[in-house]
Specification:
488 residues; eight-stranded parallel beta barrel; hydrolase; 14% strand; Glyco_hydro_1_AS; single chain; 6-phospho-beta-glucosidase activity; alpha/beta; TIM Barrel; 6-phospho-beta-glucosidase
């Protein structure tokens, strides 16, 4: 008789996740070049669209570089991790982290992206971070590209729309694989690779206003192909250079439900899910799925491939699949219904059975179990939840305490559903909560949208002492890790 699985495996990787452009700061120190994230301004809520990164244009970038704007660029100062990484990693160790997900800012290693030689100061910084993590037996999980395309590649080549960027990326990957082969065995090639179809600038460093003769979809899917090839080549390099390496892809999972059981709604939800899972299909199965042929034809999208591309994709699939999960999405064909906001998703229909966060994201813990089961059944590969968390307003009390039961409740319910998925037979490697320390929001460039177990004294304009303080959720998550998820 087969014994039922009851909980997380003993070597489950508990931790937290960040991105260089949201925590490091020091945007112009020690030889670092500008990245696309350094051009994304903070816009007050009253003037904000859903995703300000979509509004960055070629003219705007030139105005910023010429000093013609007084905008604030929060991702330039982050939360000063570049100078406080030892203090912050000590807090992560106190939490009991087994793993810490971070990204390398490409322009800190190659300031222009296409430089002949890497910047040694940048290489030394990350080596020091990895040594500090090793001191506490924390495994690094490193993202090669997390919305941090070197700005020079955007201005010179229009980012990932140009095939030439593949070679620059693989040279960067080879450089860091070789330098850090003794420190890092878990790598991700691109963060939320599907975001390129929602914001070509964010996901690919592409200025669509420089290609007025082409549709946004044509631009995005051509660039995505270049990233697929680059990802496969990086996977190949990692396996050649690093012993026991594991390379994963990373998807912004947008689990989509039909609002009704009308067959048209069911089909629409299936189509949404397929467009989302197209990216993991290519990474995990090593080929373009047949359903995209019709989508490309009906939307006048032509993906230009070079000879050998299909073989590269087929021969170098990823070892595991990682993803972000914050909420689910609902769609319908049945007339006008109340809309809701979401992470990069416009026009999503409100799900009457779910509550919403302060930013209108619908909270759906069971959707995480659905997502894990679907991934497991579709790919039969190890899975890793590398982003999950609640952005919320936090209040510092007069005594300095920060009570965040809403965050504990959100995370508890999602971890409970992960445990159920493991009982279902899902091979789950680990869980890194998004933003273990407060950081600059990707989508809105706010500090007031807080995720962390650790509070950082800084406002949306960058004012504050940067003092770190523990929230109530700090001790809660510490106990979750200490009990391997048994006490929630």
């Amino acid at each position: 008789m087969t014994k039922a699985i009851e909980g997380f495996k003993p070597d489950f990787l508990w931790g937290g996740a960040t991105a260089a452009n949201q925590v490091e700061g020091a945007f112009d120190e020690d030889g670092k070049g500008l990245s696309t994230a350094d051009m994304v301004p903070f816009i007050p809520k009253s003037k904000r669209g859903m995703n300000m990164a979509m509004d960055v244009t070629a003219d705007y970038i030139e105005d910023v570089l010429a000093g013609k704007t007084e905008d604030v660029f929060p991702k330039r100062f982050g939360v000063n991790f570049y100078h406080t990484y030892k203090e912050d990693i000590a807090l992560f160790a106190e939490l009991g982290f087994k793993v810490f997900r971070l990204s390398i800012n490409w322009s800190r290693i190659f300031p222009n992206g296409d430089d002949a030689q890497p910047n040694e100061a940048g290489l030394e910084f990350y080596e020091n971070v990895f040594k500090e993590l090793k001191k506490y037996n924390i495994e690094p999980l490193v993202t090669l590209s997390h919305y941090e395309t070197p700005l020079a590649l955007t201005r010179k080549y229009n980012g990932w729309y140009s095939r030439e960027v593949i070679d620059f990326y693989t040279n960067y990957a080879k450089t860091v694989f070789t330098r850090y082969k003794d420190y890092v065995k878990y790598w991700l090639t691109f963060n939320e690779i599907n975001v390129i179809t929602h914001s070509p600038y964010t996901g690919g460093g592409i200025l669509i206003d420089k290609l007025p003769e082409k549709t946004s979809d044509q631009i995005a899917y051509q660039a995505a192909h270049h990233q697929f090839v680059a990802s496969a080549l990086a996977t190949k390099l990692a396996h050649e250079i690093i012993p026991d390496v594991q390379v994963g892809c990373m998807l912004a999972r947008m689990q989509t439900y039909p609002v009704t059981n009308h067959p048209d709604d069911i089909l629409k939800a299936q189509e949404h899910n397929d467009l989302n899972l197209f990216f993991t299909d290519v990474h995990a199965k090593g080929e373009y799925p047949a359903y995209m042929d019709r989508y490309f034809a009906e939307n006048n999208i032509v993906v230009n491939k070079e000879e050998g591309d299909d073989e590269i994709l087929k021969n170098h699939p990823v070892d595991f699949i990682s993803f972000s999960y914050y909420m689910s999405i609902s769609v319908t064909t049945q007339g006008n219904q109340e809309k809701t906001e979401g992470n990069l998703v416009e026009g999503a229909v409100k799900n009457q059975y779910l509550e919403s966060s302060d930013w209108g994201w619908q909270i759906d813990p069971k959707g995480l179990r659905v997502t894990l089961r679907d991934f497991h059944n579709r790919y039969n590969k190890p899975l890793f939840v590398v982003e999950n968390g609640l952005g919320a307003y936090d209040k510092v009390e007069e005594d300095g305490s920060i009570h965040d039961p809403y965050r504990i409740d959100y995370l508890r319910k999602h971890i409970e559903q992960m445990k159920e998925a493991v009982k279902d037979g899902v091979d789950l490697m680990g869980y890194t909560a998004w933003g273990p320390i407060d950081l600059v929001s990707f989508s809105t460039s706010e500090m007031s949208k807080r995720y962390g177990f650790i509070y950082v004294d800084q406002d949306d304009e960058g004012n504050g002492t940067l003092k770190r303080s523990k929230k109530d959720s700090f001790n809660w998550y510490k106990n979750v890790i200490a009990t391997n998820g048994e006490e929630l």
